[in-house]
Write a structure and sequence with these properties.
globular, binds cobalt (II) ion, alpha/beta, metal-binding, TIM Barrel, binds 5-O-phosphono-D-xylulose, 214 residues
């Protein structure tokens, strides 16, 4: 099923509770929380204390996107906060399969994110065990960037592998997602749509969310 995940990176950090309520009322399915460490990506966003505060007021599930080195160190804490889905970057860990297992053993869905330069073939032996794959359609680190259209082919490729092997993973897209780019990604097989600046700039977020659903 298609799901729309507002990225709170585009929210007003001085009024996150208000923005959470607005997006829930507009029909958001989950919140997407971007953790950036200033090492793996050239920006720092927020970390565990902010996720914990959000988890206490959110009425919908939380998807955490770890853009950090050593992502394994956060898993137990995220479980304690009731997070539903966690993704980490294949480029940021030496032992991605072990980390998938750790996330799942902690009762959360495990996803791997691919930077624009990374090939789907990197995931070939991980796909049977993954709950979702996050295709980055911008370079990670900042909201408000332009969609990189070369990444669309990776969605097509993943969907083909999913069908060929009857795998069950979801395909999430993140970066520059608006009405037009969501439709392009949906046509290729994506079903989880992260949207930050587009949704938070919308005058009518409920209408924007239903348009993103296609
Ligand atoms: O992970 C990231 C950026 O690194 C994203 O989740 C952004 O927060 C999406 O923002 P928009 O591109 O939709 O403004
Ligand atoms: Co993200």
């Amino acid at each position: 099923m298609d799901k729309i995940l507002p990225s709170l990176l585009a929210g007003d950090f001085a009024n996150l509770g208000r923005d959470i309520g607005r997006m829930e009322a507009a029909g958001a399915d989950m919140f997407h929380l971007d953790v950036m460490d200033g090492q793996f990506v050239p920006n720092i966003s927020y970390g565990l204390p902010v996720i914990e505060a959000i988890s206490k007021v959110s009425n919908i599930p939380i998807d955490v996107h770890l853009m950090t080195l050593q992502p394994d160190q956060f898993i137990e804490e995220l479980k304690r906060m009731g997070v539903a889905m966690v993704s980490f970057h294949v480029e940021a860990t030496h032992h991605p399969h072990r980390l998938i297992q750790k996330i799942q053993q902690n009762g959360m869905k495990a996803g791997i994110a691919l930077n624009p330069h990374s090939a789907v073939s990197e995931l070939e032996y991980l796909l049977p065990d993954l709950d979702f794959v996050l295709i980055m359609t911008v370079n990670p680190g900042f909201g408000g960037q332009e969609f990189i259209s070369q990444c669309v082919g990776k969605i097509t490729e993943l969907d083909g592998m999913r069908k060929a092997h009857n795998y069950q993973f979801d395909i999430e897209v993140d970066g520059g997602i608006n009405d037009e780019t969501a439709a392009i990604c949906r046509d290729e097989g994506a079903n989880l749509f992260v949207s930050g600046s587009h949704l938070f700039k919308a005058e009518d977020p409920a209408a924007a969310i239903s348009r993103l659903r296609g």
